[in-house]
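Note to self: the last two entries modelled the partners one at a time, which told us nothing about the interface. This time every component goes in together.
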Amino acid sequence: MNQEEQVKLMGLWGSPFSKRVEMALKLKGIPYEYIEEDVYGNKSPMLLKYNPVHKKVPVLIHNGRSIAESLVIVEYIEDTWKTSHTILPQDPYERAMARFWAKYVDDKVMLAVKKACWGPESEREKEVKEAYECLKCLEKVLGDKLFFGGETIGFVDIAADFIGYWLGIFQEASGVTIMTAEEFPKLQRWSEDFVGNDFIKEVLPPKEKLVAVLKAMFGSVTSN
Amino acid sequence: MAEKEEDVKLLGFWASPFSRRVEMALKLKGVPYEYLEQDIVNKSPLLLQLNPVYKKVPVLVHKGKVLSESHVVLEYIDQIWKNNPILPQDPYEKAMALFWAKFVDEQVGPVAFRYVAKAEKGIEVAIKEAQELFMFLEKEVTGKDFFGGETIGFLDLVAGSMIPFCLARGWEGMGIDMIPEEKFPELNRWIKNLKEIEIVRECIPPREKQIEHMKKVVERIKPA
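The predicted structure of the combined assembly is written out below.
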């Protein structure tokens, strides 16, 4: 494989967006060179060159060209490498539903959780309720399936990586509780299966390091 | 087997670029459909039933299958009706179309309209910020008849429904020349090319009516 064909990924160790791409690459068995980016500190010339529009990670570089936006990248990976692990369904309607729910996670769930955990105290109750309702919606969508993708990890599972791993950590760091095992038995079981998967757990950032960084970034909501 | 009109229904709103782009796609592919105009203020029981998650248009119903979120709907249409393809086959070109479409709806739309209407830091600053985003699109369309190349594609439908036939009418009402020809010759050429296409012309909101509509939207957005 020549230099150009090699896959490079510019990412951030703690970012669920960045990890989505790593998960897709690992699931499909695609080797890649990982480049850690100091996104919050000094953005490298390479980042500014390969993602001039948003100046964010993740950025995938393949065949000398760059692609940004995590779910766009995951879809690119699916389209480019036809391996035994498929991330998106073949059926157009099922495919559309996977894209719809992945977008729902991005547009509604993640924002709601962020506001609930780190927003102003005055809005807390309202935001927690909103996040709770969003998660209830996903609980219903998951139903009794092993994964959102069915028998194997799929597009929505990858998009929802935040819920599978980061949500618990957000709750611990902020002191705000939205999702409990009692209220969300299906999502709870799913998150355990998700983070327990060999390919997924290989890329997850260390919990203690994340908690420390989040606490430093946002401050703990409830005083210790 | 010929499609019957009853097979496809589209719930839309005359002034919504999101629903207009779906109409363009259906017309481009010669798909007969039943159009159901929606009141987006007093939402119908049908809309609430078919799109309980977002309660928005467009909603496509195809042989009983319900889809919403315009990008998801466009991709679905492209997969079901293979003539006049909207998305490129090449994975990289497809990723670029999806990336820029996301940019148009999530960045350009809000910055070039809402921020400008609010003009919190003053109208000059707001226009400058918006024009910086348009420069990216100017570069993207340089040397091409359309974003999709020689024929219209996904990004043309998204950017076409949004920029010249929605935002531009808003700018007119505000007395703003957002993308002057001297600064954006390529984008202006692209708009001229779009206007030559019959199915695009068939799917755009009536000009005067939309200018009035956008003026009302500005009034709602502007700080008191």
